[in-house]
Amino acid sequence: MEEEVNYASVVFKANKASSPKAKSEEETVYDEVKVQENKTNQTADTPGVLPAGKSSGSCHHVQVVAWCLGILCVILLSAVIALCVYCNLTRDKGILESRNTNLTTENLQLKTEKSDLERRIENMTRERNELNLTRAQWSLDAYCPKKGNSQERQCGPCQEGWIHSPSLSSCYAIVDPDSSGQRTWEEAREDCRGKNSDLVIIGSLEEQKFIYEHSWGSTSETNGYWIGLRNASGSWKWVDGSNLTEEYWIKPPSANAHCAISLQKTLEKPKGWKAVDCTERNRWICEMNALSV
Fold first, then answer.
1. How many CA atoms lie within 13 A of 279 on its CB side?
2. pTM score, whole prediction
3. Long-range CB contacts (within 8 A, 24+) of 274-278
4. DSSP structural state of residue 153
5. Side-chain half-sphere CA neighbours of 165 within 13 A
6. Do residues 258 and 215 touch, judged by C-beta distance below 8 A?
7. What would the pLDDT profile of 110-162 be if each residue is shown by its tens digit?
8. Which of 69, 70, 234, 291 has the fewest CB atoms within 10 Å, measured from its CB?
């Protein structure tokens, strides 16, 4: 703000009588000074206008207040940031503690599961040893039965009750139950598997003759003995997966018959096989390898 410069005219009066013209000029000069003095006083007394000294002091107070408010804002911002950091640290600490608790619980569970697994392995090992002993005893009794009241054992290449073919190195079980005990092809095969064997595989004419001569029971063409021959996906295969090479059919198999039975000799028909429905119930023949004695 530029300071206003006022000019005043001063007239020194002489101690002598002045002429009317001079008196008039003196009064004019006086009136001019009076007006300028009133304007100066009015400016000084006008509301809302501060003198230069007062305006400078007021600005200083405003600057001090502004600095204080700025410092207060900085303090509040720092407090907010510190509070946010504290909250985040507290949250992260809680998450870490929760994870630590979960890991501790999982570790205990793993230890428990490990103990259970070790106990199961120990039990399975003991049961397997007992089973091996039982099987060994069973095999001993099956292949080396005691004769009469004697404690001596006489061993053979086949289990007791099985038929041995020295030339074929096989043992055969002719299972010949009555009609109530007869089974489907699948059921008969499961029975053979339970005996550590499978349905018989006839791979030569010699074996076909052997099976024919040692099978007995019904001589009807509707009943026979299940053998390990089945139609799978349009081709006849043995239970070991080999293809049928030598055939002994009485008549060609029909489209709806997928399992084979071996028939006995009749007066009208020669020995051979017949294809029937696999769900029919018949007798069956099991085969297993003979032991070398």
1. 1
2. 0.53
3. 274/221, 274/224, 274/249, 274/250, 275/231, 275/249, 278/184, 278/185, 278/186, 278/230
4. B
5. 20
6. no
7. 888 888 888 889 888 888 887 776 666 666 677 777 776 767 777 888 888 89
8. 234
